[in-house]
Amino acid sequence: MEKILSDKKAIFLFVFPTLLVLTIFVAVPIIISGYYSLLDWDGLGKGTFIGIKNYTDLVKDERFINSLINSILYAALSLFIQLPFSLLLAILVSNVKRGEKFYSAAYFVPVIVSSVVIGYLWQKIYNGDYGLLNSALRSLGFEGRDWLGQENTALIAAFIPNLWQYVGYHMLIMHAGIKSISQDVIEAARIDGASPSMIATRITIPLLKPILEVCVTLSLIGALKIFDLIYVLTGGGPFYVTEVPTIFMYKHIFDAMHYGYGSAVSIFIILECLAFTFLLRIIFRRREEDR
Amino acid sequence: MKKTDITPGRVILHLFLAFYAIVQIFPLYWLFTFSLKDNNEIFGGNIVGLPKNWRFENYYNAFFQADVIKYSRNSVIVTLATILITIILAAASAYAIERMKWKASEGVMKFILLGMMVPIHAALLPLFIVLSRLHILNSFWALIIPYVAFGLPMAVYLFTSFLASIPRELEEAGAIDGCNIYQIFFIVIAPLIKPAIATVSIFTFISSWNELMFAVTFISKADYKTLTVGIMSMVGAYTTKWGDIGAGLMIATIPTIIIYLFLSRQVQKSLVAGAVKG
Question: Which of A101, A206, B244, B269 has the most other CB atoms within 10 Å of its CB?
């Protein structure tokens, strides 16, 4: 057995293809991106090396700062509205005896549907003339409006489908976490006379902390990378009000051919994600030590 | 255990949960209904009800006039190839890392897992350039290769943790019976890791079937467009016919919904397993 398991040729055959694919199509591109980000380059001919000028321009670019603020706003909505709501749903669903599976299955449906479909569907919901939302509002006597087309409502209208789509995802993760908490603890508390809300706040939520950390990390990193739905819904418009960093990057690279500048944005997104992941780890670890 | 009496609290709880289930499902129900209507009905006659006469010709139009049939075929080809290649590469690497004896195995695993940290956006432009130098932009490979590359880290992770949970006796018995390493992998291990293969397949299916950013960047020829991009160009061309657009959106969604109906627990587990990787 030992001899079979240290067959060098087999190990090479098993691992090398994976490493090759990852190196050529993931690792090397990131390094190339880093190099491009130091160039002034329109994709044609050779770029000129300009050091970190793209980055210094970037932090002064109001349109970029605006896109960054949008993604942070989305992260905040996700952290302070979507996650608490998912947690509420998870706790409530774990409290019902009948229909537990049905509810989790139903909440999860939008997660598996393509963002393109979700995007066009919500475009129809928001449509100024015939949309579902405006039809409903008009039948209640209110005025409809072009939700995605007007500057004051476009951003929030573009964020809502995103939040809506992934509620069931976080809810399911939390629900699985709740189910893994020992029923004995909860039963004991119940016998001692604890109310359902006390059980939720004093037992379930504290024991759920590792899962909540996963959800916080996922939603924060997801928010920084948000792309698909915004791309389909508004493409960043009107007048850049719904732009997020990934859309900003995409437009600079593929519409304006600013290869260098766009690459600087992509490197910025990687660093931002790494920084936040790292920061969250430190915050969560410190909290644990305080106990 | 508590008795399950019908109390006002329970009724309210169920009403709330059922209401929210409707919030999550209703937009998709609405899509289903308008995919079978004409504009007169959608725009006022009958906004949310079931269609008065079921216009299946919307589906016929989407399928044959708007090329959705071609996009579907392309999506199937790309998705199946991605799943197949991902499973073979990931399972083999996971086996070598988890079971076989070599010095660099830990380092290699770390390198592979690092791939999970990389946002696909960051590789978009260099990949675009690499694929165009290889002359495979506008081919199925332009999607299959990146999908495999970015799916591998998670797949390797899922396979290694699954392998770690199964006992080694069967492999040892196989070795005693005179199997070589390839026979052990393909005859002994492959059937044992079926649950992990299912998880990885579902995970890979959902992500590559629905992927947009690579598809929109690397494919511009209609012959190779997958459903997500195809639908985008279809919506551009058919702006006024909501019914046909709805039918196109439904066709893109039906395969995932069918899989979900039959395997809902399994699909939920696969997608969550991908998230809670620690």
Answer: B244
B102/A11 touch (CB, cutoff 8 Å), yes or no: yes
Instruction: Considering only the beta carbons, identify the residue of A5, A17, A273 that sits closest to B99.
Output: A5
Q: Comparing C-alpha atoms, which of B214, B216, B228, B128 is closest to residue A257?
A: B128
Option in A30, A116, A130 nearest B228 (CB): A116
Q: Tokens in use for B42?
A: 């959608």
All structural domains of chain B: 8-57 (no CATH), 66-237 (1.10.3720.10)
User: Domain containing A284 — which CATH number?
Assistant: 1.10.3720.10
Angle subtended at Cα B189 by Cα B186 and Cα B190, rounded to the nearest 5 degrees: 60
Which ipTM was obtained for this model?
A: 0.87
Domain count, chain A: 1
Chain B residues whose CB is inside 8 A of the A111 CB are 271
| Domain range enclosing A113 | 55-290
- Residue by residue, pLDDT tens for chain A (291 residues) are 777 888 888 989 999 999 999 999 999 998 989 999 999 888 787 888 898 899 999 999 999 999 999 999 999 999 999 999 999 999 999 888 888 889 999 999 999 999 899 999 999 899 888 888 888 888 888 888 888 888 888 999 999 999 999 999 999 999 988 988 888 888 888 888 888 888 888 888 888 888 898 899 889 988 988 899 999 999 887 889 999 999 999 999 998 889 999 999 999 998 998 899 889 988 888 766 665
State the residue for tokens 């109001």.
Answer: A62
